[in-house]
Each structure stands twice: as structure tokens, then as C-alpha cells.
Amino acid sequence: MHRAEVPKLQVVEKNRVIASGCWRVDSLAFKPVFSKIGSSAKLVAGRSDVAWDLTGITALDYIGAQFFWNAWGHDLPSNLKMLPEHKGFFDRLKKTGQLDIRQSRSHAQAGALTRRLWRVLHSHFIDIVTLTGQFILDCYQFFRNPLIGPWKEISANVYHSGTRAIGITALVGFLIGVVLSYLSAQQLHNFGGDPYLVDLLGIGITRELGPLLAAILVAGRSGSSMTAQIGVMRVTEELDAMQVMGMSHGFRLVLPKVIALSIVMPLLVMWTNIVALVGGMMAAQISIGLSIDYFISALPGSVPPANLIIGLVKGMVFGALIALISCHFGLRIQPNTESLGQGTTSAVVSAITIVILADAVFAIVLQHVGWK
Questions:
Q1: CA 120 from chain center: how many Å?
Q2: What pTM was estimated for this model as a whole?
């Protein structure tokens, strides 16, 4: 490298700095040279009483300008001399520096939000895995010695989650059957496909809509009730009392709810399917004149039995998932009313989301099963 191209930085009288030479990346790349000018810059870095003279610089690029910008504390010093052609570098750095500060703040906030979200998701995942493992151990204990099982709790949950949900599931199922039949019948009738309405309603309701509707209704009705029940027990310190008495939360609270919903949900799915098909038959007869007798006679041949089995299995899985999610959020509730409300809302939203995700997994895995 030519001597005139060596970047130099001289500190004169401790308050005056003179820069000269070539301040470009190819000249600054030499480690001895960069170390020497870096040592000189540290003597005056951040001082506001220093006069900077950059008129001796023969060539400058953004790398060299960044060196001065860092030494100045990301702001132009009050006593500065430079060539006019070099001023544009520092004006651009000033604008970029302001933008970087804003971006760094936004990035820091986004990073903090991401870390917080990760901690929350990780905490929920660990708790759910722990709860599921404890449930499996409780099932083993229950089936090993059924006489000590929580039969009364299971019976009570079957009644509250199943028997008392018959009305709402029947109403919604009937209306969904009517709506689906009206929407499909008109389009099929235009193309002469009236008989295919039986296939559409039969497979669509028994395989997808019946289990999904029943699960969503149970998650909103019974799932929230389970979470609120456990949350109130936390507020009234009943959970602490159970722990002191040596009673397992999982065996007495979680196990009965999961078993009850696993039993109830397939029955509710079957009930919802029947009522929805009845609504669809009535709407088909009114809209396109498709007789109920033909609908009933054609339905067994249009719907392979595998679809009904898939719907019942879905119902059992959805019931277990809803109960586990509801108990999970119930056990996380803190002993205050605000946490009780937030936990109940989170339980319902999470249960419905998990049910839809599970339904999507079923649809992908069983896409080739249950068709003619």
C-alpha cells in the first residue's frame, strides 16, 4: 500500500484531531493500521470539546465514515471541518442511524414479545404433557382396582356434560341440517343431481359436521363449566385442602371428566347426526320434493359404515381433548376472580382450536378411508 494511502489520525493538543490519507475499506483492512488509528480515536471518543479536521482525507467511503461516526457517538460534532464531497456520507449515516434506533427498539420489543410467547407456550406444553402422563397413570390405577374408582364423579359428569347437552346439540344440529340441505339441494337440482343430496348430507354430517358441531358445543358449554368448577375450587382453597388430605387432583378431578366426556361425546355425535339428517330430509322434501321415504331407503347405501365409525372415534378423541384442556386451564387458575374469568375464556378458545386442529389431522390421515 502506498504511503499516501495510509489512513492517519493525529491528536494535537488533546483537543484537536487531524485525519488524513485514504479512509476506504481497502486501506482500513490492514490490522496494524486500524489498531493504530483506533487507539488514537479512543483518546477523544465521545468528547464534545474536540475539534475535528477531515480536510486532509483524500478518499472516503461509508466504512471510513462509520469509523468517525462511532467515535462521535452517532452525532456530528459542533467543531468539524471536512470537504464538501464527504458531507453526504455523514448525512446518510445520520438518517440511517435514526432509522436504526427506531428499528432496534421495535426489534427489541418484538424479541421480548417472542420470548414471552415462547415461555408461555413452553409452560403450557410442559403442563399439558405432565397432566396427560398423570392421567395415564391414574387410568392404570383405576383399571387395576376399579372398586376405588371415582364412579360418582364419572356419573355426575356424564349427566352434566351429556344428558343436559342433548337439547342444544339437537337444536343446532337440526338447523345445520336444514341450512346445508337448502344450500346444496338447489344447486344439485339445477343439474339433475337430486339423489346425490343423500350422499352429500349423509357423508358430510356423519363424518365431519356431526362430530365437529357436537365438540364445539360441548367445549363451549361443558368445557367452560369444568374449568370454572376447578377454578372456583382454587379460589375457595378446596384444591389445597384436597392436597393436604392426600387426595390426588388428577384421580378425583381430571380422570372422571376425561372418562365421562370420552363416553358422552360419541353418543352426542350419534344424536347430532340423527337430528341433523332429519332436518336435512325435511328441508329436501320442502325445497326439491325429495321424499323422506327415498331418503331413508337410500341413506344406508350412500354412507359406508366406515364414516360412522370415523365420526364416533372423532367424538371420543374430541371429548378427551376438551376435558384435558379444560382441566389444564382450570388447574392453572390463580386464587382471584380475574384469573378465573381469563382461564375460562382461554379454555374455551383453546379447546375449540385444538378440536379443529385434530379434525384437520383426521381428515388428512383418513382421506382415503370411508369412500365408495
A1: 11
A2: 0.69
